[in-house]
Specification:
The structure is a homodimer.
Chain A: E1 4-6, E2 11-14, H1 22-28, E3 33-38, H2 42-45, H3 48-58, E4 62-66, H4 75-88, E5 92-97, H5 99-113, H6 119-123, E6 135-139, E7 151-156, E8 161-166, E9 174-177, H7 187-205, H8 213-235, H9 240-252, H10 267-279, H11 283-298, H12 303-314, H13 321-338, H14 345-348, H15 355-365, H16 381-391
Parallel strand pairs in A: 2-9, 3-4, 3-5, 5-6, 6-9
Antiparallel strand pairs in A: 7-8
């Protein structure tokens, strides 16, 4: 194995009724005044929010709740949350929702602990983050893995820039994970989640680094399980077995375990972020819409990696390496389609784009030439443009 | 998936020269006066201990060192360590060694934080543990998984009772894992470690609980990787690739991940502990010496589990279920033998035992009738006796 650091201290409470442990967990991690952050009306409608508020009230924990986090969560919302939290004197942030809500809660926690700093300057790595507030999570969507990950993605709504930020301070103190809380999700969101989980693993799995056998094996295990149960979940989002496997895979896919010791690629994520930033499309959909083109474009950088993927994840063995690799890419795209996910721009619902837009997307993705993207194949501006072009149908 | 809790907060620094981070990690976790605990002369001879002491001195961390921990670590030694630590005013315990040293360090940490309590009363669950001192680890043997686990095993040398104790307070703050530090191990110890790692996984994998797909897949991945690289490691303990895979698998096998949501069995561990307690044999060897008999005796409790094990771990598919299961047991025993590990009492070096001794071992294993052992098949006194008898050749 290659050298690595691994630190995933989030306490997980997984299973039916797990949310009943929320107040006890907040107390364990020192919360006395809690800002609860949530998204749209679903946690209100389902009664989950009220249930948690009652639990906190019974436990003598003061709280204030703010709702309205949107998918591709906005910096401006996080900033208003910071103000609310400071006004309330919050010492703990509780996210009740999916990745967008959790990422917003992380942003609020960092902002409250650093009231004199500009929040976005952490995301752009202009200033180092040295303290934060504790964050707890009650997960309602299996997808982002943010409930245990060190990542958080925010979109600067002034510039439409979507950036993921990694720091150990992003690790939540706890993750309450009851698969039943995901039963009422629309099928499209379940499918977006399945893609997101697969992509967190694939974006680590396709790496130039050799020799991380147990890490590779775990990644392949996770992909097989998500592919199998993802199909069931989309057909029936209240299938406990499927939804629970997907929920735990969602955490494992992004807590670090599936990429230990390897250079991350994450190019499809970077390319997808530009699509979400510009067209406000769902994160998972942006990833499946670009992966097929990314894979075909990058295949030759290391065909043997695609061959291993073909064999171990899809059980494919063709005549030669390239055929085997291409068959695996085809299988993956077909799978995405089978769960209703797009594999190109028109399927993503953004239509065929002009040359100018493709160039703009590519420019923004490489920070106007200031960075390259990915590691499996290092992509420059022209490469990124070519991949967008491949997906532009 | 079934419900579970998971909390594995140990920070891992893995790879070449990882031990150079020891002082920095101690500081991060609040250590200012450190009791260093080690075993025999190997960490002295190799210069590792001196190197770490120099690092601490340079970083302005006060320390005192005590050596002499033996395999199957003794309660009496832990108690003398507690006295030393209190005299020194230690606020942090650093283990430099393998499982025995780390388990002793955990015991010392609990004792120092509870100076008015009898240490053994925690191990026997007579009193609850509510506080401890932070423990850090520099691992030199891949085997016990204690560097990240919530377990610690001590032997009460007054009664020859060996008991494993699980508590979140047993989780070390950090684990420094440099595979090169294991290169000088005797081959026999490497092989014992390989068996121990496999058994931590097998003792979770053979469970009556159904429906933990990703957990099962990860367990099977781990077994395949350890079986493959274990062979190489025993042939050449300075093979970095093999020793590093085994080292990380050692942690993953016992940090909880491979048994989430499932009832643990751990009967072979309990049966093996009695052998170590009475005959002072190596832990790993005690496990392989009993597993074959345990497996044959318990097979019928759930043959389909052995069939899955046969298919996924060994790639075996025979005519019928029982043949397939038996072939997998045979493969496992052959593997143990191939790395020089015993599969019965004579190979373990304790010879054929009298009826009286077998009865005594069984009596002690079930706490003289006060408990049963295992969950895959719940074993009573007679079952345990029968398994010892099967292995008694």
């Amino acid at each position: 194995m290659q050298s690595f650091g691994f630190y995933s201290p989030t306490e997980v409470a997984f299973g039916k009724d797990a949310e009943l442990k929320t107040a006890e967990l907040i107390k364990k991690y020192g919360g006395t005044r809690v800002l609860i952050v949530y998204g749209g009306g679903s946690v209100v409608k389902s009664g989950l929010l009220e249930g948690i508020e009652q639990l906190l009230a019974k436990s003598g924990i003061a709280f204030n709740s703010i709702g309205g986090v949107k998918p591709n969560p906005r910096l401006s919302f996080a900033k208003s949350g910071i103000k609310e939290a400071i006004k309330f004197g919050a010492d703990f942030i509780l996210a009740v929702g999916g990745g967008s809500v959790i990422d917003t809660a992380k942003g609020i926690a960092h902002g409250v602990a650093n009231p004199d700093k500009d929040l976005w300057a952490f995301w752009t790595n202009e200033i180092p983050l040295e303290r934060s507030l504790p964050v707890g999570t009650v997960l309602t969507i299996s997808a982002a893995g943010s409930e245990t990950s060190e990542s958080a993605v925010l979109t600067n709504d002034e510039t439409n820039t979507k950036i993921g930020y990694d720091t150990p301070f992003n690790r939540p103190k706890f993750a309450v994970m009851n698969p039943e809380l995901t039963f009422t999700l629309p099928v499209y969101q379940v499918a977006c989640g399945v893609v997101d989980i697969m992509m967190h693993t694939l974006d680590r799995y396709f790496t130039p680094t050799e020799g991380n056998e147990i890490t590779d094996e775990i990644a392949e295990s996770l992909l097989r399980v998500v592919i199998k149960h993802g199909k069931t979940a989309v057909a029936n989002p209240s299938d406990y077995e499927a939804m629970s496997e997907i929920m735990w895979c969602g955490s494992l896919s992004h807590n670090g375990l599936t990429g230990l010791g390897a250079d991350w690629d994450f190019a499809p994520h970077q390319l997808g972020h530009e699509l979400s930033g510009k067209f406000d499309v769902a994160h998972g959909a942006s990833l499946s819409a670009i992966w097929d083109s990314w894979a075909k474009y990058c295949l030759k950088a290391k065909p043997e990696r695609f061959v291993r993927y073909a064999q171990k994840v899809w059980g494919i063995e063709k005549g030669n390496a390239e055929e085997t690799a291409l068959a695996a890419i085809e299988k993956t795209a077909s799978y995405f389609k089978s769960v209703g996910m797009p594999t190109c721009f028109t399927e993503l619902g953004i239509g065929v784009q002009s040359e100018e837009i493709l160039r703009e997307l590519a420019d923004r993705c490489v920070f106007f030439g200031k960075r390259t993207v990915g590691s499996f194949k290092v992509l420059d501006r022209e490469d990124v443009y070519n991949i967008y072009k491949l997906a532009n149908h």
